[in-house]
Structures are given as structure tokens and as C-alpha cells.
């Protein structure tokens, strides 16, 4: 598969993940009045489950037989690294720079997406 097609597919699924996260954050923060940190964690976990399925079968498909449990482990490590970078960015914006919590959540998507794509391309689904 061409790299441009892979990036396009990743962008489509990333957009769906962003919608899942935005709705989750909105419901938890506005409707349930849960703080932005717990809302963020929950939103990313829900989107990550969705993301793994699409990555395995559509974004980074492979013809060779793969060990799904190994991929789940590597995917979880990639998620942890991407999420950690995003979460530190989020906290820095909100707590350090007094940025709007919703804007910080949105900007964090770009940090997360970049780290996640690189880790999954180079480690999880190679």
C-alpha cells in the first residue's frame, strides 16, 4: 500500500476517533460534570479500542500471519507513549498556560496522532 493511502486512511479513522473523544469529553464534562482529566482518559480509552480494530485490518493490514496478542501489547505500548505525550501537553496548556480546556483537548489530538502513527507504523504493525 502506498504511504499516502495509509496516511489518508489513518486520517479518516483519526477523525472518527476525534469525534468519539469529543462526544465523550462533552458528555462527561458538561452533562455529568466530571473533571477534564478523567474525561480525557475515558475518551482516549474508548477511541483506542476503535482505533486498534481499524489499524489491524485496514490501515496496517498484513498478509503474513500475525500474533494478535503481541499486536495488542505493542499497540498498548504505542498508545501509552502517544497518550503520555498528549496528556503532558494537555496539562501544560491548561495548568501552565491557562488555556481553555476544550481547546487544549483539541490541540492534544495532533500530538497524540503523530506519535501514535509513527509507533504503530514502525513497531506494532511492521
Automatic annotation (TrEMBL):
It is a multi-pass membrane protein. It holds the Pfam family GtrA_DPMS_TM. It is found in: Membrane. The keyword Transmembrane helix applies. Residues 9-125 form the GtrA/DPMS transmembrane domain. The chain crosses the membrane at residues 7-29, 41-60, 72-90, 102-119. Keywords: Membrane, Transmembrane, Transmembrane helix. One of its GO terms (cellular component) is plasma membrane. It comes from the Bacteria. One of its GO terms (biological process) is polysaccharide biosynthetic process. The keyword Nucleotide-binding does not apply. Belongs to the GtrA family. This is GtrA family protein. It comes from Bacteroides muris (ex Afrizal et al. 2022).
Amino acid at each position: 500500500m502506498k504511504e499516502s493511502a495509509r496516511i489518508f486512511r489513518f486520517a479518516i479513522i483519526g477523525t472518527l476517533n476525534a469525534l468519539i473523544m469529543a462526544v465523550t469529553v462533552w458528555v462527561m464534562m458538561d452533562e455529568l460534570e466530571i473533571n477534564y482529566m478523567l474525561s480525557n482518559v475515558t475518551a482516549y480509552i474508548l477511541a483506542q479500542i476503535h482505533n486498534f480494530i481499524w489499524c489491524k485490518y485496514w490501515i496496517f493490514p498484513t498478509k503474513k500471519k500475525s500474533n494478535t496478542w503481541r499486536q495488542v501489547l505493542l499497540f498498548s505500548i504505542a498508545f501509552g507513549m502517544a497518550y503520555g505525550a498528549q496528556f503532558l501537553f494537555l496539562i501544560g496548556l491548561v495548568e501552565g498556560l491557562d488555556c481553555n480546556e476544550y481547546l487544549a483537548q483539541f490541540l492534544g489530538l495532533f500530538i497524540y496522532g503523530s506519535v501514535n502513527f509513527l509507533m504503530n507504523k514502525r513497531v506494532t504493525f511492521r
